[in-house]
Amino acid sequence: MSEGLRERKKRETRLRISDMATGLFMARGFDNVTVAEVARAADVSVNTVFNYFPTKEDLLFDRQDEVVELLGKVMRERRPGESAVQALRRDFLDALDTGDWRYGFHEGSDAFPRMISASPALVARLREMNELRMEALTRALADEADADPDDLTPALVAGQICATLHTLTTHAVQRVLAGESVAAITPDLREHADRAFRLLESGIGDYCARRTE
Fold first, then answer.
1. Could you tell me which residues form the DNA-binding region (predicted)?
2. Exposed/middle/buried for residue 192 (C-beta within 10 Å: 0-12, 13-18, 19+)
3. What is the per-residue pLDDT across 119-155, written as a single tens digit (0 to 9) for each?
4. Rounded-to-integer distance, Cα 121 and Cα 100, Å
5. How far is residue 2's CA from residue 122's CA, in Å, rounded to a whole number?
6. If we measure between CA atoms, which residue out of 208, 120, 104, 113 comes closest to residue 160?
7. What fold characterizes domain 64-204?
8. What would the CATH number be for the domain defined by 5-60?
9. What is the pTM for the complete model shown?
């Protein structure tokens, strides 16, 4: 079904507000920009901003739902015979090779973490997003494995996977913030990732492997 005029205008307005907000936050710092200033820059009212973004943090993390659901989506779409760990390893390395943003590490990725680290509100929001992502992966694993409600395995597996990904991306971002280029870091990060996922596989192994036909 094609997008109607009303829906297109709403999408364009939301994007304009988010783009204006991100530009202001990056230039001046999250805590130094008010929602009223974002509204003026986007040529909308403050109420309109809050109609699209319930909190100021939502202006920056406008793709939160996509980030939170990513790991579960990758796991649900894994290939026949592929375990959750194998699928997530493949997707992480693909993002690394293609320079995609979805794991928080890409060319020009230094400004965003600098801005977040300078704002306690954003640090708290990012921590909340990481927790939500782990919960979403836990649910996906439980569904795909048809786990009993009392089975802790999905939560244990999700915790190990998320901790591994967090460690890898944090290491990469810290090196970028120290002045290294993404191109220089990528080979080392790929080696670290290979080692990390091998460690996961030796412990988690074939848990939740998709059946072959």
1. 34-53
2. middle
3. 999 999 999 999 999 999 999 999 999 999 999 999 9
4. 26
5. 36
6. 208
7. Tetracycline Repressor; domain 2 (1.10.357)
8. 1.10.10.60
9. 0.86
